[in-house]
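S1.2 Input.
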Amino acid sequence: MLTFAGAMGWQLARMHARVGDALQEMNAMSDPDRAAQRTLDYYRLNAEAFRDGTRDHDVSQNIDALLRHIQAPAPLRILDLGCGPGRDLKALTARGHVAVGLDGTEAFVEMARADSGCEVWQQDLLQLQLPTESFDGIFANAVLFHVPSAELSGVLARLHEALKAGGVLFCSNPRGQDEEGWSGDRYGVWYSWPSWRARLLAAGFVELEHYYRPAGLPRAQQPWLASVWRKASRG
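S1.3 Output.
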């Protein structure tokens, strides 16, 4: 049986844990580079397990959503942002397109180059250096939610600049009610649809469609929010 003293100790431990979590989240918001590196460290330590666990994930619905909105003639030049071990680079190449990968995790970059044969760049999401007006589409599947909210507008601006006129951005993120913080050793932001939509519109994108995944399930069992956007011309 839990004694009064034991119960008080347990409550204090929980309180200290919550304070510690809050301090970590405040530190991440004030030092986004540190948050990014800790998240990358998680993927560095778990690269092989991540590849094995996601190798057979079917995201063809998302690839279809990107491609059907691109109006340029094939073959298309597509940036796979946060390409991981290269699964989707292979899928895009198999459809006859020119896919370029980008990831911040060194092991993923090596895996993606070896498995896909594609050009793959090693870059941090917070330090993107992308060629201007170079891509017909950007496939950002399960990646942008790792960007601290204070840094998102800058990242979206660089993606906007990297797209050709009329280019298309696909995004898929775990959804929530605008929570932000740590999930284990990975930093994330779980946007609601209204908040995510407002962010993309402010960055100069035009909404094309959005949907929830996995398909065919009740909304409560669809944790992923997918959305597709066209680059709007500035000025």
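S1.4 Remarks. The chain has eight helices and nine strands.
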